[in-house]
Amino acid sequence: MTAVGALVLAAAVVVSAPVDFSGTWTLDTYLSDNSEQVAAAIRADLRIGSDTSTFLMTGARGPRERGRNPHQADAKPPNADEQKQIDDLTMALRYPAPTLKITQSGDAVTLTDAQGQTRTLDHWEGPQLVATTDLGNGRRMTATYSLVPTTKQLMVRTVIERAPNQPGAFEIKQVYDRAQP
To answer: Exposed, middle or buried, 154 (CB in 10 Å: 0-12/13-18/19+)?
Structure first.
């Protein structure tokens, strides 16, 4: 085997090696998005109960202007059950876990928060772990877990896509530091 062939083989082994998320992680509040601002943004974006939040979602300032906005016809507020489901699904974004314990077995990664609630993920896109959740009415939430190569921190980027014909998605960033053994 030539030196170039050995280098290519070694590179292939490194790329295919699984990323190890195992350990206990602590939220870095300095590098993460502010949880109060995240909660306000999610409430404003996903609830259409007041004129202010309606304006943020559709551009319409009140009941008389709603007919003038070309996006209003597609902007349908979630009903009470849908809103509760959205609130439950976005709870971890609005109030991020101060610590996460992560265990990994093969492709399955289990996250346990400080309250003992667990979630198992197993959808890998290269070195990133991805979880996608349907929020209804064309809205989708995608969380991508990755390790920052330089700092070895756990980066969780969550993108919330809005309903069709609405302004672009918004992203929330949470950064966790691995606890020292």
So the answer is: buried
Q: Could you tell me the residue range of the domain that residue 173 belongs to?
A: 21-178
pLDDT in tens, 15-32: 444 799 999 999 999 999
CATH number of residue 118's parent domain: 2.40.128.20
pLDDT over 50 at 68, yes or no = no
Give the residue from 177, 175, 166, 176 showing the smallest Cα distance to 59: 166
Say if 5 falls within a structural domain.
Answer: no
Number of domains in the chain: 1
Say if residues 172 and 155 touch (Cβ distance below 8 Å).
no
pTM over 0.90: no
Is residue 53 within 8 A of residue 44, CB to CB? The reply is yes
Strands (E) across 52-138 are located at 99-105, 108-113, 118-121, 124-125, 128-136
Q: Report if residue 4 sits inside a domain.
A: no
Question: Which residue is associated with the tokens 């969780």?
Answer: 156
